Amino acid sequence: MNLISKSRAPTDRRDLVIVRAGDRSLHRDWGADEPGCNFDLIVSYYGSDPSAFRLPYERRVDQKGGKWDGVFALFRQQPDLLQRYQYFWLPDDDLEADRKTIEAIFATMRRLDLDVGQPSLTLDSYFSHLPFMRCDSFEHRFVDKVEIMAPCLRADIVLTMLPLFEYSLSGFGLDSIWTRLRADNRRKSAVFDKLSVRHTRPVGSALSQMMLEKGLTPHAEYAELEARFGLDEFYPISYEAVDIRGRRWRSKTAIGLRMTLDYARRLKAFRQVHRLKKTLWRHVRRQHFKATELSTIALELPSFQAADKVKAC
Predict the structure, then answer these.
(1) Helix H or strand E encompassing 121
(2) Which of 3, 63, 134, 247 could join 70 via S-S bond, C-beta 3.0 to 4.6 A?
(3) Contact, 46 vs 70, CB < 8 A?
């Protein structure tokens, strides 16, 4: 049974951070308790400590399970959230971030009129996919995929994705779908190079163990969505970009070469240098040869929430 801690009265803030948190969650350093903070926070707690995260601003909700089925459970329990808020940031609990960066993520989503976006990762982060690492030459890059670690989603995109959240613990495959829900998906998803967070733990370690105990694997979840929607290999392509001087880049090959040069120059700053060396030339090839994947994927809306009630940006 879900238990909701005493929470603040509803606010007129337009942005909500939802963190699926264990006992080592870093969310208390994100500034949600600071005066003047302009986003709200809900802590969806999957741990077992009855006293953890009970401060008023945390708005704790208890839910066992994985990240995405837990997010689904929260929205099923509180569907009014989709009407009250316009954007949702859904970060992992092991990210180092601050209030200024989080507020800038929401502001950039609005400025660029995005459906999905994410901060880049600092070079000393643990990472899975090189294109999500901070690239010093760019302010932001338009990409065809946004990973599951720290996505920011518009309310109507969350609503549309909920049927897939319900049965997903790992989220593998979701990151190939939520960037493809419009008739025209170009320039609707981006990674923000000038807004970075630090990923502090090896990718997927706790999740994999939990899923194995249930007889599941992230790759099996991906395979199911791959077969259902005809997904290709997961590799994000940066097909347009705006550099730090405000110039727009439209050649994905040129963008890829610039990213490679920047990463090579900062080699010593990477925590996972071995992973960088392994993937750097693969990145150049993918940026040149791999097609951008933005064709439309149609999903049915969940039954408990009508699309016309979702708060528009």
Answers:
(1) strand 116-121
(2) 63
(3) yes
Residue type, 250: R
Domains belonging to the chain, first-starting first, are 15-302 (3.90.550)
pTM (2 d.p.): 0.92
- Show Cβ contacts of residue 125 under 8 Å, excluding neighbours closer than 6 positions: 133, 197, 198, 199, 200, 271
- Please, is 171 exposed, middle or buried when counting C-beta atoms within 10 Å of its C-beta (0-12, 13-18, 19+)? buried
Q: Are strands 40-45 and 95-96 parallel, antiparallel or unpaired?
A: unpaired
pLDDT per residue rounded down to tens, the chain (313 residues)? 333 333 444 568 899 999 999 999 999 999 999 999 999 999 999 999 999 999 999 999 999 989 999 999 999 999 999 999 999 999 999 999 999 999 999 999 999 999 999 999 999 999 999 999 999 999 999 999 999 999 999 999 999 999 999 999 889 999 999 999 999 999 999 999 999 999 999 876 666 667 777 778 888 899 999 999 999 989 999 999 999 999 999 999 999 999 999 999 999 999 999 999 999 999 999 999 999 999 999 998 776 554 455 654 4
Strand partners, 243: 138
